[in-house]
Design goal:
Helix content: under 10%
Structural class: mainly beta
Number of strands: 100
Shape: flat
Oligomer: single chain
Strand order of the largest sheet: 1-2-4-7-10-13-16-19-22-25-28
Radius of gyration: 53 Å
Largest sheet: 11 strands, parallel
Distance between the termini: 151 Å
Number of helices: 4
Number of domains: 9
Length: about 1200
C-alpha cells in the first residue's frame, strides 16, 4: 500500500501521538527527515507476517526504496501479538530514507522506566538461524524503532553507509520478553557515519544482548553516539545476557569522534557480561580509533551500578597506534564511568594515548589501570620511559589522614620537569580500588621533575580506608593507579570512660572505644598521676580498694594528634555489716489472702537478702519484701531473713505467720486425749509449754522433749496422710497404736519429710482403729503446731517398711551394704543415690563394693507394690580414714544429731612419725600429714533455725562434724579436695544448742584452689570441737574434710659448712622435730634441688660448680621451718693455712684439707726423723691443732699427711 505526500501531516501526527508516544523525541526524528531528501514521503503498512507479497515488510521496503524522500513503514497485522516475520532470504537493503516503526502495531508500547525496561514489542523479525543480516541500511536519516531483531547469522542491523541513522527502542538479540536469548552474529554493525544508537530517554533505550560475536561493532565509522543502551543484560538490566567477544568495539582510524555514553542523565550505557572465547571479551574495545569519549557508563555492573555483571575480559581496552586523544571519564559531573567486577584489568592501554579521569574503578580481577597490558608498571626516575600513555609515573603517596570534615594526602610525583599535572585521588575500603573520587590537585613539577603535594579535600570519615591516585599530563596521558596509602586519622574517643561505683574488693574495668590510625598509644591517669601499667585501651583493677577511688582519664596519641578523655569518677564503697532498722512482724491471716513480710535495713556495699522459712532458704525469695499470695495453712511458719554484705551477715528476728484454722485440743500428757474423727482436716495448737513424759519414746528416733498428743479414729479403711506443714519449728511426727506409753506400737514416723523442717507420714488406716498422733520439736524446739490430715478411702494398701536402711562410714575401697525390710505383696525395689535412680539396683539389699569418693552421698529405696509406693528414709554413706585405719565417725545435717552421735572422732596423743602416703584398699588415698579425713555429701541439707552464719557467710546447706582432742597441739582442719565452694567454721561450748557455741576459727576460700577453706589453731586437750561445713550461697556437693593434730617443724641441728676436695664427697644433715613427720626439700643458692627430699643430703663426686650455700626447708601440714645456710666449698691441696706461737700454751697450727679424711701431724727437729704428733678425722676439712710441747724445743718442724 502506498500513499503520496498528502499523508505527510498524517505521518507527523502519527509520530507525535502514536508512533513514539514521547513528544520529547520528536525533534530528533523531524531532524532526521529534514536531513533526508526533500520530496514528500509516504506511509507503507505491513499487514501480514509473510516473507514476500503484498502487505509484507519486504514489499514495504521495496516500495519505500522506489519512492524518493522519507517514508514510513507501519504495522497493522491483525490478531494478537507478538507477530513473527520469519525471513527465508535477506530483505532488500534500505537505500532510500525510511522510518520503520514497530510501535505502530496494536498493543505495542515503548519503555517508560528510568532503570529497567517495560517496553512491549509486538513485531519479531527473525532470520531463523539461516539468514545473514536483518536490516541493511544505506540511506541517511533512516530510523528503526520497536522491533525485536533476532536469529540472524550476521548482523541484526547493518549500517552500511549514510549518516544520521537512528536505532532506538529495539531488542537486538533477545526475544520480545527481553530475557530469552535469540542472538544474532553481531547486534549492530556500522560502517556508516554519525549514527545514533539509543539515547538518553527511557523510550530510546535499546537492549543489545545475547549476540554471539559482539553487541555493537563500529568499523571505520565516525562521529557516532552510543547512549543509554543495555548491552549484555536482559531488559531489566539486572541479569546477564552477555554478548560474545565484545560489548562495544571501535575499529580503525576512521572511527574517530564516537561517543560511548555521556555525562548527562540517561546517556550512559550498561556494558556487561561479555562471554565466549574471543581474543578480547572486553566491555569496550578501542583499536586504532582516535578522539573517542567513553563517559558515564556502567561497565561490568548491572543497571544500578552496584551489582557484579563483570565482563569476561577487561572493562575497557585501548590499542593501536592511532588510538590517541581518547578520554575515559572526564572532569565534569557525571562523566566518570563505573568500571568494576571485570575478569581482567579495569582499563588497559596496550598502545596509544588515553586520559582516564574521574572514574570509579574497583573489584576488577587484575589491575585497575594497566599501561601496556603487562602488569604493574614501576616508576622510573625522571619518567623517561616510553610506551602507552608514555608510561606516565604515578604519584607516590607518603601519608593520608582523615578527620570528621576533611582528608589530607601528602606525597610526591617524580615525572617530567616543569610540567603541569592533574592528580586525582580516590578512596576505597580495600587497597587498590578507586571507589570514590575525593578530589583533584593540579601542580607544576620543578626543574628536577619533582612535584610535592599536600592536598586537603572536603570529605571526612575515611578512617580505615585506603587512598590511591593517578597523574595525568597535559597531553592526556594518565598513569596507573598508585600504590595505596592507608588513611590515618587523629585519635578520637567514640565511647568515653564511664563513672563507676564499685564495692571494695570488686574488679574494676575502665575502657574507651577509640578511632584513629594505628598505632594509638594510651596513657591512663589516676588523679592526674600517670599509671605505669595503664597503657592499653582497657584499665583493669583486680580488686578495688579505697586508695583506688578518684578520677581517671586516658590520653590517646598517634602520629596525627592527641586527645584526652573526659574524667571518670571511680567510687569505692567499703562494705559495712547490715543493720536491721525494721524487723518483719508476725501476722495472723485467713486462708486464701495475700500478705507481705518486709524488712528494712542500712548497709554499704553489695547487699544480698535471703528469706527463710523455719530456717530453710525459700527459693527465689531474695527481695526486702516477701509477698505471699493465696496463703494456705501449709504456708504458715517462722519466717526470717538473712542480710549480708562482704563485711558480714545479720539475721532478722523471726516473724511467725499464723494461718487462722480451727484449734485442735492437743494434750501434753497421755491421759484423756482428745479424739478426731474427721477424714480430712487442718488445725493448730502449740507445744511451747509441753514436755516429755517419763518413758516416752524418741519420736522418729530423734531427740525431742516438747511432745503433744491427740487421737485420730479412722472412720473408714484407706490410706491416711498426716503432716505438720505450716508449723513454725522443726517438728517430729509419729503415729502409734496402743493404749498407753508402755504398749505403744509405732505405725509411722518422720522428721523432715513435710518440707521446711516439717514432717509427713502415710500409713494404712483401718476403719474403727484409733491412732495416737504425737507432735514433738527436734531438740526441744517449740512453737505453733499445724496438723493436716487426709484419709483416702481405698482398698489399696501401701507397702510397709519395717526396717530402714542405716547410714554407714567405710574406708576407701571398702564395702557398704544397705538393707530395707518391708512387708506387702508383689513388692519391687528401686534404690536412689542423691535423688537419682541407680540402674540395676532393684533388690531389697544394695551392695557397694570398692567404695570411692564419687559414691559418697545419700541413699534411699522406693518400695512398690502393684498399686502404691513408699520411700525409705535417707541413709548417709561416708568415707573415713585415720592414722589408726577405719573410723565410725559420721557427719549430720543437724547440729544436735552430730553432737549425740556416739562414735565421734577422738584425736589422742600425737604420733611421733607419720607413715607417709598410704593407700588403703580401694581407691582412697591418704594425704601426707593428715591424721584423718572424712568424706561426705551435703546433698539435700539445709540450715537450722538459729544456726549461725558461719564466718559471716549465710550459706544454706550445712553439715556438722565433732572432733574431740585428748591432748594439746596445733590443729589444722581444711576442705582441700572438696568439689564446691565451702565455708568452714569451728566452735566449742557445751554443745547443747546454737546459743552456747563459742567461735574458735573460721575461713572462706584460703585453700589452695581459692574455694577450699582452711583453719589452724591451738587446740586444748579434752575439748570438743564442733565443725560446720556450709556452701557459699547454699552450694552443695562432696566435702573432703581433712584434720591433723600435732606440732609444726622445729629445727634442732642445722647443717654444717664443709670443704670438699674436688671429686670427693660430703654429707649435709639436719635434725628436726615435727608431728606428724616432716617433709624435706634442700636448696642450693635458693633453687630447689631435684629429689633432695631427705634429712640428709649426700654430695658425691663434688665439683666446683656444686659449691655454694645450701639450706633445707622442713615442713608438715602445720607449718614449715628453714635451716641456716651451710657453705660448701671446694677444698684446695692439703696445707697449713695458719700458724703462730701462742705462749704459754704452745704452737697453733691450722690444717686445710678434704672433709671426712683422717690426717696425721708429724714433727721433727732435723727434717730427717719424723715422729707422729697427733691424728684426727676431720669432718669439715679444717683442723686446728695446738702443740703444747713446742716450748721445750728451740726449733721444731711439722708436716701433715693422710693417715694410712
Amino acid at each position: 500500500m502506498r500513499t503520496r505526500g498528502v499523508h505527510l501531516i498524517n505521518t507527523l501526527r502519527a509520530l507525535a501521538q502514536g508512533l513514539l508516544r514521547h513528544g520529547a523525541g520528536l525533534s530528533l526524528l523531524v531532524c532526521s527527515w529534514l536531513w533526508g531528501p526533500a520530496a514528500l514521503g509516504a506511509v507503507f503498512t505491513v499487514t501480514n507476517t509473510a516473507d514476500s507479497g503484498p502487505g509484507t515488510l519486504r514489499s514495504a521496503i521495496t516500495n519505500a526504496n522506489a519512492l524518493p524522500g522519507l517514508d514510513t513503514i507501519e504495522f497493522a497485522i491483525p490478531g494478537p501479538g507478538p507477530h513473527t516475520i520469519q525471513l527465508t532470504t535477506a530483505l532488500p537493503s534500505i537505500v532510500d530514507p525510511v522510518v520503520i516503526n514497530g510501535y505502530s502495531q496494536a498493543g505495542a508500547s515503548s519503555n517508560s522506566l528510568a532503570v529497567g525496561n517495560n517496553a512491549v514489542l509486538q513485531i519479531r523479525l527473525s532470520g531463523g538461524g539461516t539468514v545473514n543480516t536483518g536490516l541493511r541500511i544505506q540511506a541517511a536519516g533512516s530510523a528503526v524503532y520497536g522491533l525485536a531483531i533476532l536469529d540472524f547469522t550476521g548482523a541484526g542491523i547493518y549500517l552500511l553507509s549514510g549518516t544520521n541513522i537512528v536505532i532506538q527502542g529495539n531488542f537486538i538479540g533477545l526475544d520480545v520478553d527481553g530475557a530469552t536469548v535469540r542472538g544474532n552474529g553481531v547486534g549492530i554493525r556500522s560502517t556508516a557515519r554519525s549514527a545514533v544508537i539509543g539515547g538518553p530517554l527511557p523510550w530510546q533505550r535499546n537492549v543489545i544482548s545475547g549476540n554471539r560475536q559482539g553487541g555493537v561493532s563500529i568499523q571505520n565509522s565516525a562521529n557516532n553516539f552510543i547512549q543509554g543502551n543495555y548491552i549484555g543484560t536482559d531488559a531489566s538490566g539486572s541479569l546477564a545476557r552477555g554478548n560474545g567477544f565484545v560489548g562495544v568495539e571501535l575499529i580503525g582510524p576512521n572511527s574517530f569522534g564516537t561517543v560511548i555514553g555521556g555525562s548527562q542523565p540517561g546517556e550512559g550505557n550498561v556494558i556487561a557480561a561479555t562471554t565466549g572465547t574471543g581474543l578480547t571479551n572486553h566491555g569496550v574495545y578501542i583499536s586504532g580509533a582516535p578522539n573517542i569519549q567513553v563517559e558515564g557508563n556502567y561497565i561490568g555492573t548491572d543497571a544500578t551500578g552496584t551489582n557484579a555483571l563483570g565482563n569476561l575480559g577487561g572493562g575497557i581496552s585501548v590499542a593501536g597506534t592511532n588510538a590517541v586523544n581518547i578520554r575515559i571519564g572526564g572532569t565534569e559531573p557525571g562523566a566518570g564511568n563505573v568500571i568494576a567486577f571485570n575478569a581482567s584489568n579495569g582499563v588497559q592501554v596496550v598502545s596509544g594515548s588515553c586520559a582516564i579521569l574521574g572514574n570509579r574503578i574497583l573489584a576488577n580481577a587484575a589491575q585497575g589501570i594497566d599501561l601496556g597490558g603487562d602488569g604493574f608498571t614501576a616508576n622510573d626516575p625522571g619518567d623517561t620511559d616510553t610506551g602507552p600513555n608514555g608510561r606516565q609515573n604515578w604519584p607516590e603517596l607518603i601519608a593520608a589522614s582523615s578527620g570528621s570534615q576533611n582528608t589530607t594526602v601528602f606525597g610526591q610525583l617524580n615525572s617530567q620537569a616543569n610540567t603541569l599535572y592533574r592528580l586525582e585521588f580516590f578512596a576505597a575500603p580495600s587497597c587498590g580500588d578507586a571507589l570514590v573520587l575525593i578530589g583533584a590537585y593540579e601542580g607544576t613539577s620543578d626543574a628536577t621533575g619533582l612535584l610535592e603535594f599536600y592536598a586537603t579535600f572536603d570529605i571526612g570519615g575515611l578512617a580505615g580506608w585506603f587512598i590511591t591516585a593517578t597523574a595525568t599530563d597535559p597531553q592526556g596521558n594518565t598513569s596507573e593507579l598508585s600504590l595505596c596509602a592507608p588513611v590515618s586519622t587523629e585519635p578520637a574517643i567514640l565511647v568515653q570512660p564511664q563513672p563507676q561505683v564499685v564495692n571494695e574488693g570488686d574488679p574494676v574495668t575502665l575502657w574507651v572505644v577509640t578511632a584513629g590510625s594505628p598505632p594509638i598509644h594510651y596513657q591512663w591517669f589516676h588523679n592526674d598521676v600517670p599509671l605505669p601499667n595503664g597503657t592499653n585501651a582497657t584499665l583493669s583493677i583486680a580488686a578495688a580498694l579505697p586508695l583506688h577511688a578518684g578520677t581517671y582519664t586516658v590520653l590517646l596519641t598517634n602520629i596525627d594528634g592527641a586527645v584526652l578523655s573526659q574524667p571518670a569518677l571511680l567510687t569505692v564503697v567499703v562494705p559495712t555489716v547490715p543493720v536491721v532498722v525494721d524487723q518483719p512482724e508476725s501476722l495472723s491471716v485467713v486462708p486464701a489472702t495475700t500478705t507481705n513480710l518486709t524488712v528494712s535495713f542500712s548497709a554499704a556495699g553489695p547487699v544480698r537478702i535471703q528469706w527463710r522459712l523455719n530456717g530453710v532458704d525459700i527459693p527465689g525469695a531474695t527481695n526486702a519484701t516477701l509477698t505471699l499470695t493465696n496463703i494456705q495453712p501449709t504456708q504458715g511458719g517462722s519466717y526470717s531473713a538473712v542480710i549480708w554484705t562482704p563485711a558480714g551477715a545479720v539475721n532478722t528476728a523471726e516473724a511467725v505467720l499464723s494461718v487462722q484454722v480451727p484449734t485442735l485440743a492437743f494434750k501434753d500428757d497421755f491421759t484423756a486425749l482428745t479424739q478426731l474423727t474427721a477424714e480430712t482436716g487442718t488445725g493448730r495448737s502449740s507445744n511451747t509449754l509441753a514436755s516429755a513424759q517419763p518413758g516416752e519414746p524418741m519420736h522418729a528416733g530423734k531427740p525431742g522433749g516438747k511432745s503433744i498428743w491427740i487421737i485420730w479414729r479412722a472412720s473408714k479403711t484407706g490410706i491416711a496422710t498426716f503432716s505438720t506443714a505450716g508449723s513454725s519449728f522443726d517438728t517430729l511426727l509419729a503415729v502409734y497404736t496402743g493404749t498407753g506409753l508402755s504398749d505403744l506400737v509405732e505405725v509411722a514416723s518422720d522428721d523432715d519429710g513435710g518440707g521446711f523442717l516439717t514432717s509427713q507420714v502415710q500409713f494404712n488406716a483401718v476403719a474403727g482403729q484409733q491412732y495416737l498422733i504425737a507432735v514433738d520439736g527436734f531438740g526441744g524446739a517449740s512453737g505453733e503446731v499445724v496438723l493436716n490430715w487426709n484419709l483416702e478411702v481405698t482398698a489399696q494398701v501401701l507397702p510397709v517398711i519395717v526396717s530402714q536402711p542405716n547410714g554407714q562410714t567405710v574406708v576407701p575401697g571398702g564395702t557398704a551394704i544397705f538393707t530395707v525390710g518391708a512387708t506387702g505383696t508383689d513388692l519391687s525395689y528401686q534404690w536412689f543415690f542423691n535423688g537419682q535412680a541407680l540402674a540395676g539396683a532393684t533388690n531389697s539389699e544394695l551392695v557397694l563394693e570398692g567404695v570411692t569418693e564419687a559414691q559418697v552421698g545419700k541413699y534411699c529405696v522406693r518400695v512398690s507394690n502393684p498399686y502404691r509406693s513408699v520411700n525409705s528414709q535417707h541413709a548417709r554413706l561416708e568415707l573415713a580414714w585415720t592414722e589408726s585405719g577405719s573410723s565410725r565417725a559420721r557427719t549430720s545435717g543437724k547440729f544436735l544429731e552430730a553432737v549425740l552421735w556416739p562414735h565421734r572422732m577422738e584425736l589422742g596423743a600425737p604420733v611421733e612419725q607419720f607413715r607417709g602416703v598410704r593407700r588403703l584398699s580401694g581407691s582412697g588415698t591418704v594425704s601426707r600429714g593428715y591424721t584423718g579425713t572424712q568424706v561426705f555429701s551435703t546433698y539435700g541439707e539445709t540450715k537450722e533455725p538459729g544456726e549461725p552464719n558461719h564466718c559471716g557467710i549465710p550459706g544454706g546447706a550445712s553439715s556438722w562434724f565433732v572432733l574431740t582432742t585428748t591432748t594439746n597441739g596445733l590443729l589444722r582442719i581444711d576442705t582441700e579436695g572438696s568439689d564446691f565452694d565451702t565455708v568452714l567454721a569451728v566452735y566449742t561450748g557445751p554443745g547443747t544448742d546454737f546459743a552456747t557455741l563459742v567461735p574458735v576459727a573460721c575461713d572462706n576460700n584460703s585453700g589452695a584452689d581459692g574455694r577450699a577453706s582452711k583453719v589452724i589453731f591451738a587446740a586444748a586437750a579434752n575439748t570438743n570441737y564442733f565443725i560446720a561445713v556450709d556452701g557459699v550461697n547454699g552450694a552443695t556437693g562432696r566435702v573432703k574434710l581433712n584434720y591433723v593434730l600435732g606440732e609444726p617443724p622445729v629445727i634442732l641441728t642445722n647443717p654444717a659448712s664443709a670443704r670438699v676436695a674436688e671429686g670427693g664427697a660430703a654429707t649435709l644433715q639436719v635434725a628436726a622435730r615435727a608431728i606428724p613427720g616432716a617433709c624435706y626439700q634442700w636448696f642450693r643458692q635458693g633453687v630447689p634441688l631435684p629429689r633432695a627430699t631427705n634429712a640428709c643430703l649426700a654430695l658425691a663426686n663434688f665439683q666446683p660448680d656444686q659449691a655454694g650455700h645450701y639450706h633445707v626447708c622442713v615442713s608438715n601440714a602445720l607449718g614449715q621451718a628453714t635451716s641456716q645456710p651451710a657453705l660448701v666449698q671446694v677444698a684446695g691441696p692439703l696445707r697449713f693455712s695458719h700458724q703462730y706461737r701462742r705462749a704459754p700454751d704452745g704452737f697453733q697450727l691450722t690444717i686445710e684439707g678434704a672433709a671426712q679424711t683422717r690426717y696425721v701431724i708429724e714433727c721433727s727437729t732435723n727434717l730427717q726423723v719424723w715422729v707422729p704428733l697427733a691424728t684426727n678425722l676431720t669432718l669439715t676439712g679444717l683442723w686446728e691443732f695446738v702443740d703444747a710441747g713446742a716450748t721445750n724445743f728451740d726449733r721444731r718442724f711439722y708436716r701433715v699427711r693422710v693417715a694410712p
